[in-house]
Automatic annotation (TrEMBL):
Keywords per UniProt: Hydrolase
Gene3D superfamilies: 3.90.1470.20, HAD superfamily/HAD-like
Keyword Transmembrane belongs to the record: no
Protein name: DEKNAAC103262
Cited InterPro entries: HAD-like_hydrolase_phosphatase (IPR050849), HAD-like_sf (IPR036412), HAD_hydro_PyrdxlP_Pase-like (IPR006384), HAD_sf (IPR023214)
GO molecular-function terms, A-Z: phosphatase activity
Short name of one Pfam family: HAD
Signal sequence region: none
Amino acid sequence: MIAPKSIVFTDWDGTVTLQDSNDLVTDLLGFGKEERGRLFELMLDEKMSFREGFLRMLKSISDNGYSVDYCIEVLLKNVKLDPGFKPFLMWCKSNEVPLYVISSGMEPIINALLQKLIGEEADYIEILANDVKTDPNDKAKWDIVYRDETPFGHDKSRSINKILSTYGDNRPSAFYCGDGISDLSASKTCDILFARSGKDLTVFCDRHSIPYREFHTFDDVTRDIAAVTSGEKSVEDLVEGK
């Protein structure tokens, strides 16, 4: 296998998108913003697993009688992409840099948003996320199907390390972009962690002295990864330049 010089893994909600779709439907269709905020504090303080907190959020939506299809309808009207993401995707494609969405969200929702917001160019992206199981007799009854048994539901470090292991000694420079609590398992996995400015991931990294590079839009990510891929800068240059 001829390894690329770089490979990119990114969270979806609140990282590629400007709104977190799971937060949005919880606030609008589930138990609301106040209760979600309480759960997020427990998760950030590591008093509740992400798996449990996220399950409670989604259950509040299905308990209120809203189907996954209805959630998608709401999200298609409200969710927008980071303005720099599509140019970043095109840069990855033209430079043969693999691009993966590694998400704790649900694949049917992510795929629907990608197809609406980007179109056929989104086919370049590989999605690794949780799935959904719907009651065939009642679409309003549904559950998330987690990828694994861990406290994250989807331990992103497992997915990333499995992909990187396929390159053996030719492992490319690996980058991860994230914004929140679900990205904690991936925070030490790649060579550079890009953390969205002003979000929970930067708070956690500061608390635990985890190095990261702050970004405001994917234009920042494109600039930095292009510099490493071209050889203009090294991974160490970006880490030291935080």
